[in-house]
Predict the structure.
Amino acid sequence: MSTESLATTARTLVSSGKGILAADESNGTMSQRLQSIGVEASSDSRRDWRQLIFTADGFAEYVSGVIMFDETIRQSSDDGRPLVEILSNAGVIPGIKVDKSTHQLAGSKSEVVTEGLDGLRGRLAEYYDMGARFTKWRAVFSISETTPSDYAISVNAHALGRYAALAQEAGLVPIVEPEILMDGSHSIDSCFAASERTLRTVFEELSAQGVALEGMILKPNMVISSHESPKRATSAEVAERSLTCFKRTVPAAVPGIAFLSGGQGDEEATVNLDAINRLIADEGAPWEVTFSYGRALVATALKTWGGSPANVKKAQKVLVERSRLTSAARQGKYSPGPAGRPST
Ligand code: 13P
Protein backbone atom coordinates (compact mmCIF):
# COMPACT_ATOMS: atom_id res chain seq x y z
CA MET A 1 0.00 0.00 0.00
CA SER A 2 1.40 3.37 -0.94
CA THR A 3 2.16 5.97 1.67
CA GLU A 4 -0.02 8.38 -0.32
CA SER A 5 -3.06 6.15 0.05
CA LEU A 6 -2.46 5.74 3.82
CA ALA A 7 -1.95 9.50 4.10
CA THR A 8 -5.25 10.15 2.30
CA THR A 9 -7.12 7.94 4.78
CA ALA A 10 -5.33 9.56 7.73
CA ARG A 11 -6.15 13.06 6.50
CA THR A 12 -9.79 12.09 5.93
CA LEU A 13 -10.05 10.80 9.50
CA VAL A 14 -8.94 14.18 10.88
CA SER A 15 -10.64 16.38 8.27
CA SER A 16 -12.18 19.68 9.24
CA GLY A 17 -15.00 19.50 11.76
CA LYS A 18 -14.66 15.74 12.18
CA GLY A 19 -13.23 13.30 14.68
CA ILE A 20 -13.29 9.61 15.55
CA LEU A 21 -15.57 7.60 17.81
CA ALA A 22 -13.88 4.88 19.86
CA ALA A 23 -16.58 2.20 20.14
CA ASP A 24 -14.02 -0.54 20.67
CA GLU A 25 -14.67 -1.47 24.28
CA SER A 26 -13.78 -5.12 24.82
CA ASN A 27 -16.67 -7.50 25.50
CA GLY A 28 -15.84 -7.36 29.21
CA THR A 29 -15.83 -3.56 29.42
CA MET A 30 -18.93 -3.17 27.23
CA SER A 31 -20.75 -5.74 29.32
CA GLN A 32 -19.97 -3.79 32.50
CA ARG A 33 -21.26 -0.58 30.90
CA LEU A 34 -24.48 -2.34 29.88
CA GLN A 35 -24.94 -3.83 33.32
CA SER A 36 -24.46 -0.35 34.84
CA ILE A 37 -27.65 0.75 33.01
CA GLY A 38 -29.53 -2.42 33.97
CA VAL A 39 -29.16 -4.23 30.63
CA GLU A 40 -28.21 -7.89 30.54
CA ALA A 41 -24.89 -8.26 28.72
CA SER A 42 -24.87 -10.48 25.64
CA SER A 43 -23.55 -10.31 22.10
CA ASP A 44 -27.06 -9.19 21.02
CA SER A 45 -27.30 -6.36 23.55
CA ARG A 46 -23.78 -5.21 22.67
CA ARG A 47 -24.86 -5.27 19.00
CA ASP A 48 -28.07 -3.35 19.76
CA TRP A 49 -26.04 -0.59 21.38
CA ARG A 50 -23.53 -0.35 18.53
CA GLN A 51 -26.37 -0.45 15.98
CA LEU A 52 -28.05 2.46 17.76
CA ILE A 53 -24.85 4.49 17.38
CA PHE A 54 -24.05 3.57 13.78
CA THR A 55 -27.58 4.25 12.49
CA ALA A 56 -28.02 7.63 14.21
CA ASP A 57 -29.18 10.23 11.68
CA GLY A 58 -26.61 13.01 11.29
CA PHE A 59 -23.83 11.15 13.11
CA ALA A 60 -21.63 11.02 9.97
CA GLU A 61 -21.62 14.79 9.74
CA TYR A 62 -19.32 14.93 12.77
CA VAL A 63 -17.66 11.53 12.89
CA SER A 64 -15.19 10.44 10.19
CA GLY A 65 -14.38 6.98 11.53
CA VAL A 66 -15.42 4.45 14.17
CA ILE A 67 -13.07 2.08 15.97
CA MET A 68 -14.72 -1.29 16.53
CA PHE A 69 -13.95 -4.36 18.61
CA ASP A 70 -13.46 -7.76 16.95
CA GLU A 71 -16.97 -8.94 17.89
CA THR A 72 -18.63 -5.86 16.35
CA ILE A 73 -16.87 -5.92 12.98
CA ARG A 74 -18.33 -9.43 12.46
CA GLN A 75 -21.90 -8.49 13.46
CA SER A 76 -24.98 -7.53 11.47
CA SER A 77 -27.90 -5.31 12.45
CA ASP A 78 -31.18 -6.86 13.60
CA ASP A 79 -32.44 -6.55 10.00
CA GLY A 80 -29.40 -8.39 8.65
CA ARG A 81 -27.09 -5.63 7.35
CA PRO A 82 -23.39 -6.00 8.24
CA LEU A 83 -22.47 -3.19 10.66
CA VAL A 84 -19.33 -2.43 8.61
CA GLU A 85 -21.53 -1.78 5.59
CA ILE A 86 -23.83 0.51 7.56
CA LEU A 87 -20.79 2.63 8.45
CA SER A 88 -19.28 2.63 4.97
CA ASN A 89 -22.61 3.51 3.34
CA ALA A 90 -22.90 6.49 5.71
CA GLY A 91 -19.41 7.66 4.68
CA VAL A 92 -17.83 6.65 7.99
CA ILE A 93 -14.49 4.81 7.79
CA PRO A 94 -14.52 1.47 9.65
CA GLY A 95 -11.63 0.94 12.09
CA ILE A 96 -10.60 -1.90 14.39
CA LYS A 97 -8.76 -2.26 17.68
CA VAL A 98 -6.07 -4.89 17.14
CA ASP A 99 -4.23 -5.10 20.45
CA LYS A 100 -4.94 -7.86 22.94
CA SER A 101 -5.07 -5.59 25.96
CA THR A 102 -2.63 -4.99 28.79
CA HIS A 103 -0.80 -7.66 30.79
CA GLN A 104 1.51 -7.43 33.77
CA LEU A 105 5.00 -6.50 32.69
CA ALA A 106 7.56 -9.18 33.61
CA GLY A 107 9.58 -8.10 36.62
CA SER A 108 7.22 -5.28 37.53
CA LYS A 109 4.50 -5.26 40.17
CA SER A 110 2.49 -2.35 38.88
CA GLU A 111 3.24 -1.71 35.22
CA VAL A 112 1.71 -3.28 32.15
CA VAL A 113 2.62 -4.05 28.58
CA THR A 114 0.16 -4.29 25.71
CA GLU A 115 0.20 -7.64 23.93
CA GLY A 116 -1.13 -8.77 20.56
CA LEU A 117 1.82 -8.92 18.16
CA ASP A 118 1.63 -12.71 17.72
CA GLY A 119 -0.37 -13.47 14.59
CA LEU A 120 -1.01 -9.78 13.99
CA ARG A 121 -0.02 -9.82 10.31
CA GLY A 122 -2.73 -12.43 9.57
CA ARG A 123 -5.39 -10.63 11.61
CA LEU A 124 -4.65 -7.33 9.87
CA ALA A 125 -5.10 -8.93 6.45
CA GLU A 126 -8.44 -10.39 7.58
CA TYR A 127 -9.66 -7.01 8.92
CA TYR A 128 -8.64 -5.29 5.68
CA ASP A 129 -10.69 -7.82 3.72
CA MET A 130 -13.62 -7.17 6.04
CA GLY A 131 -13.51 -3.45 5.15
CA ALA A 132 -11.43 -1.91 7.92
CA ARG A 133 -9.14 0.92 6.82
CA PHE A 134 -7.57 1.94 10.11
CA THR A 135 -6.56 0.33 13.38
CA LYS A 136 -5.78 1.13 17.01
CA TRP A 137 -3.27 -0.12 19.57
CA ARG A 138 -3.31 1.28 23.09
CA ALA A 139 -0.37 1.34 25.49
CA VAL A 140 -1.12 2.35 29.07
CA PHE A 141 1.05 4.10 31.65
CA SER A 142 0.29 5.28 35.16
CA ILE A 143 1.97 8.04 37.11
CA SER A 144 3.45 7.41 40.57
CA GLU A 145 6.74 8.18 42.32
CA THR A 146 8.43 5.45 40.28
CA THR A 147 6.33 5.22 37.12
CA PRO A 148 6.21 5.32 34.19
CA SER A 149 9.58 3.56 34.24
CA ASP A 150 11.99 3.74 31.31
CA TYR A 151 11.50 -0.03 31.02
CA ALA A 152 7.71 0.22 30.58
CA ILE A 153 8.04 3.13 28.16
CA SER A 154 10.65 1.30 26.11
CA VAL A 155 8.81 -2.03 25.70
CA ASN A 156 5.45 -0.40 25.00
CA ALA A 157 6.94 2.04 22.49
CA HIS A 158 8.70 -0.83 20.75
CA ALA A 159 5.40 -2.73 20.48
CA LEU A 160 3.65 0.39 19.14
CA GLY A 161 6.35 0.64 16.47
CA ARG A 162 5.99 -3.03 15.49
CA TYR A 163 2.21 -2.73 15.35
CA ALA A 164 2.27 0.49 13.32
CA ALA A 165 4.70 -0.91 10.75
CA LEU A 166 2.60 -4.07 10.33
CA ALA A 167 -0.62 -2.06 10.03
CA GLN A 168 0.83 0.14 7.28
CA GLU A 169 2.16 -2.91 5.45
CA ALA A 170 -1.44 -4.24 5.43
CA GLY A 171 -2.81 -0.95 4.05
CA LEU A 172 -4.30 0.15 7.37
CA VAL A 173 -3.66 3.51 9.04
CA PRO A 174 -2.35 2.93 12.56
CA ILE A 175 -3.70 4.97 15.42
CA VAL A 176 -0.81 5.00 17.89
CA GLU A 177 -2.18 5.42 21.40
CA PRO A 178 0.16 5.89 24.33
CA GLU A 179 -2.19 6.76 27.21
CA ILE A 180 -1.01 8.26 30.49
CA LEU A 181 -3.88 7.55 32.86
CA MET A 182 -5.62 10.33 34.80
CA ASP A 183 -5.92 8.09 37.90
CA GLY A 184 -4.26 9.30 41.10
CA SER A 185 -3.50 12.70 42.56
CA HIS A 186 -0.65 13.89 40.35
CA SER A 187 -0.32 17.43 39.02
CA ILE A 188 -0.40 18.66 35.43
CA ASP A 189 3.40 19.08 35.65
CA SER A 190 3.86 15.36 36.34
CA CYS A 191 1.59 14.57 33.41
CA PHE A 192 3.62 16.90 31.21
CA ALA A 193 6.91 15.22 32.16
CA ALA A 194 5.55 11.68 31.67
CA SER A 195 3.87 12.58 28.37
CA GLU A 196 7.00 14.24 27.00
CA ARG A 197 9.25 11.29 27.90
CA THR A 198 6.82 8.77 26.50
CA LEU A 199 6.15 10.58 23.23
CA ARG A 200 9.86 11.09 22.55
CA THR A 201 10.48 7.36 22.89
CA VAL A 202 7.39 6.43 20.85
CA PHE A 203 8.49 8.60 17.92
CA GLU A 204 12.06 7.26 18.12
CA GLU A 205 10.64 3.74 17.77
CA LEU A 206 8.26 4.69 14.95
CA SER A 207 11.18 6.17 13.08
CA ALA A 208 13.52 3.24 13.81
CA GLN A 209 10.90 0.83 12.49
CA GLY A 210 10.24 2.75 9.29
CA VAL A 211 6.70 3.91 10.01
CA ALA A 212 5.49 6.55 7.53
CA LEU A 213 4.47 9.43 9.78
CA GLU A 214 2.20 10.83 7.04
CA GLY A 215 0.09 7.68 7.23
CA MET A 216 -0.63 7.49 10.98
CA ILE A 217 -2.56 9.29 13.68
CA LEU A 218 -1.40 9.91 17.24
CA LYS A 219 -3.98 9.33 19.97
CA PRO A 220 -2.57 10.77 23.19
CA ASN A 221 -3.95 11.90 26.51
CA MET A 222 -4.25 15.63 26.97
CA VAL A 223 -1.65 17.06 29.33
CA ILE A 224 -3.98 17.38 32.30
CA SER A 225 -4.07 17.07 36.10
CA SER A 226 -5.30 13.80 37.60
CA HIS A 227 -8.83 13.18 38.86
CA GLU A 228 -7.81 13.62 42.50
CA SER A 229 -5.25 16.36 42.08
CA PRO A 230 -5.66 18.91 44.91
CA LYS A 231 -5.45 21.61 42.24
CA ARG A 232 -7.17 20.70 38.96
CA ALA A 233 -5.62 22.61 36.06
CA THR A 234 -7.86 25.02 34.14
CA SER A 235 -8.69 24.46 30.48
CA ALA A 236 -6.33 27.31 29.55
CA GLU A 237 -3.49 25.49 31.37
CA VAL A 238 -4.42 22.19 29.73
CA ALA A 239 -4.30 23.87 26.32
CA GLU A 240 -0.99 25.62 26.90
CA ARG A 241 0.76 22.57 28.42
CA SER A 242 -0.63 20.16 25.83
CA LEU A 243 0.41 22.26 22.87
CA THR A 244 3.89 22.87 24.30
CA CYS A 245 4.37 19.15 24.91
CA PHE A 246 3.21 18.09 21.44
CA LYS A 247 5.19 20.79 19.65
CA ARG A 248 8.30 19.41 21.34
CA THR A 249 7.65 15.79 20.51
CA VAL A 250 5.24 15.22 17.59
CA PRO A 251 6.79 15.66 14.11
CA ALA A 252 5.01 17.98 11.69
CA ALA A 253 4.60 15.13 9.18
CA VAL A 254 1.95 13.51 11.42
CA PRO A 255 -1.42 14.59 9.93
CA GLY A 256 -3.41 14.54 13.13
CA ILE A 257 -3.58 14.28 16.88
CA ALA A 258 -6.88 12.75 18.02
CA PHE A 259 -7.29 12.82 21.79
CA LEU A 260 -8.76 10.14 23.99
CA SER A 261 -11.11 11.46 26.68
CA GLY A 262 -9.64 9.23 29.40
CA GLY A 263 -12.45 9.57 31.90
CA GLN A 264 -12.96 13.31 31.56
CA GLY A 265 -16.67 14.07 31.67
CA ASP A 266 -18.26 14.94 28.33
CA GLU A 267 -18.38 18.66 29.12
CA GLU A 268 -14.78 18.74 30.40
CA ALA A 269 -13.50 16.89 27.33
CA THR A 270 -15.38 19.31 25.06
CA VAL A 271 -14.19 22.47 26.83
CA ASN A 272 -10.56 21.31 26.88
CA LEU A 273 -10.56 20.35 23.18
CA ASP A 274 -12.07 23.74 22.41
CA ALA A 275 -9.38 25.54 24.45
CA ILE A 276 -6.61 23.68 22.62
CA ASN A 277 -8.05 24.55 19.21
CA ARG A 278 -8.57 28.19 20.20
CA LEU A 279 -4.90 28.37 21.17
CA ILE A 280 -3.94 26.79 17.85
CA ALA A 281 -5.97 29.47 16.05
CA ASP A 282 -3.66 32.03 17.73
CA GLU A 283 -0.34 30.16 17.66
CA GLY A 284 -0.66 27.75 14.77
CA ALA A 285 0.21 24.04 14.82
CA PRO A 286 1.42 21.70 12.10
CA TRP A 287 -1.20 18.98 12.68
CA GLU A 288 -4.99 18.77 12.89
CA VAL A 289 -6.14 18.39 16.49
CA THR A 290 -9.38 16.50 17.03
CA PHE A 291 -11.10 13.86 19.14
CA SER A 292 -11.12 10.09 19.26
CA TYR A 293 -13.43 9.89 22.25
CA GLY A 294 -15.22 6.92 23.71
CA ARG A 295 -16.98 7.74 26.95
CA ALA A 296 -17.13 11.51 26.40
CA LEU A 297 -19.22 10.99 23.26
CA VAL A 298 -21.53 8.17 24.27
CA ALA A 299 -21.92 8.04 28.07
CA THR A 300 -25.05 10.23 28.24
CA ALA A 301 -26.62 8.54 25.21
CA LEU A 302 -26.06 5.13 26.82
CA LYS A 303 -27.91 6.23 29.97
CA THR A 304 -30.70 7.78 27.89
CA TRP A 305 -31.16 4.50 26.00
CA GLY A 306 -31.24 2.32 29.12
CA GLY A 307 -31.73 -0.74 26.89
CA SER A 308 -35.27 0.22 25.87
CA PRO A 309 -36.27 0.17 22.17
CA ALA A 310 -38.62 3.06 22.96
CA ASN A 311 -35.63 5.25 23.82
CA VAL A 312 -33.52 4.56 20.72
CA LYS A 313 -34.46 7.75 18.85
CA LYS A 314 -33.99 9.91 21.95
CA ALA A 315 -30.57 8.38 22.68
CA GLN A 316 -29.52 8.88 19.04
CA LYS A 317 -30.45 12.56 19.31
CA VAL A 318 -28.36 12.91 22.46
CA LEU A 319 -25.41 11.21 20.75
CA VAL A 320 -25.60 13.37 17.63
CA GLU A 321 -25.94 16.54 19.70
CA ARG A 322 -22.86 15.64 21.77
CA SER A 323 -21.01 14.84 18.53
CA ARG A 324 -22.04 18.25 17.14
CA LEU A 325 -20.72 20.04 20.23
CA THR A 326 -17.46 18.08 20.17
CA SER A 327 -17.08 18.89 16.49
CA ALA A 328 -17.53 22.57 17.32
CA ALA A 329 -14.81 22.21 19.97
CA ARG A 330 -12.58 20.50 17.42
CA GLN A 331 -12.81 23.77 15.46
CA GLY A 332 -12.39 26.01 18.54
CA LYS A 333 -16.00 27.17 18.17
CA TYR A 334 -17.77 25.62 21.15
CA SER A 335 -19.87 27.93 23.30
CA PRO A 336 -20.60 26.46 26.71
CA GLY A 337 -23.75 27.55 28.46
CA PRO A 338 -27.40 26.56 28.08
CA ALA A 339 -27.52 27.21 24.31
CA GLY A 340 -24.46 25.09 23.72
CA ARG A 341 -25.60 22.16 25.82
CA PRO A 342 -27.32 19.05 24.61
CA SER A 343 -31.11 19.29 24.58
CA THR A 344 -31.81 16.24 26.77
P1 13P B 1 -12.10 7.23 26.16
O1 13P B 1 -12.32 8.49 25.33
O2 13P B 1 -13.35 6.75 26.86
O3 13P B 1 -10.88 7.34 27.03
O4 13P B 1 -11.82 6.08 25.12
C1 13P B 1 -10.96 6.31 24.11
C2 13P B 1 -10.17 5.10 23.88
O5 13P B 1 -10.17 4.56 22.80
C3 13P B 1 -9.32 4.58 24.96
O6 13P B 1 -8.51 3.58 24.47
